[in-house]
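Section 5: illustrative case.
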């Protein structure tokens, strides 16, 4: 038997002004997208912005449904729209944010398990890590890739 310790490296910031310029732009785009979310049931407005290798920024937000299980998260709306529009173009970074009661959450906004799985598929698809900027009013967390958010993930090569 062997014990192993796995590490996750994050960078933490306390305001958007501390972030590098491209990350700031992406967070602003995500915050803008959150304003347009359709979240009448949870009242938890999530916004995501994806930076593509061609320089395009694609926005997405959560879309809820009276049949709760039919809703979809902001991150997946943005990623799937990006892939549907530019199927051959890699994703370089994704910012995600959330507002409730008209205010940003203290943060960092955390992608759900399904969104982590989809992020990892995108990383596998384009063989490129996705920089993640998880926004919040008090704490913004930056990670170099989605891999560490879902260790031991089910990936294309898991299919054998
Ligand atoms: N939500 C997202 O849009 N992204 C996540 O990663 C977590 C949750 C949405 C789904 C639902 O509309 C609302 O937030 C409350 O769960």
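Designed sequence:
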């Amino acid at each position: 038997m062997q014990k192993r310790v796995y590490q996750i490296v994050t960078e933490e910031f306390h305001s958007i002004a501390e972030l590098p310029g491209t990350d700031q732009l992406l967070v602003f785009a995500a915050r803008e997208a959150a304003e347009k979310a359709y979240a009448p049931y949870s009242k938890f407005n999530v916004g995501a912005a994806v930076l593509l290798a061609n320089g395009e920024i694609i926005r997405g937000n959560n879309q809820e449904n009276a049949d709760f299980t039919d809703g979809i998260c902001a991150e997946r709306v943005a990623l799937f729209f990006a892939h549907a529009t530019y199927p051959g173009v890699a994703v370089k970074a994704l910012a995600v944010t959330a507002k409730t009661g008209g205010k940003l959450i203290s943060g960092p906004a955390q992608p759900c398990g399904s969104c982590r799985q989809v992020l990892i598929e995108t990383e596998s698809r384009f063989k490129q890590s996705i920089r993640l900027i998880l926004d919040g009013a008090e704490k913004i967390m930056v990670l170099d890739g989605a891999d560490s958010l879902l260790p031991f993930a089910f990936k294309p090569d898991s299919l054998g």
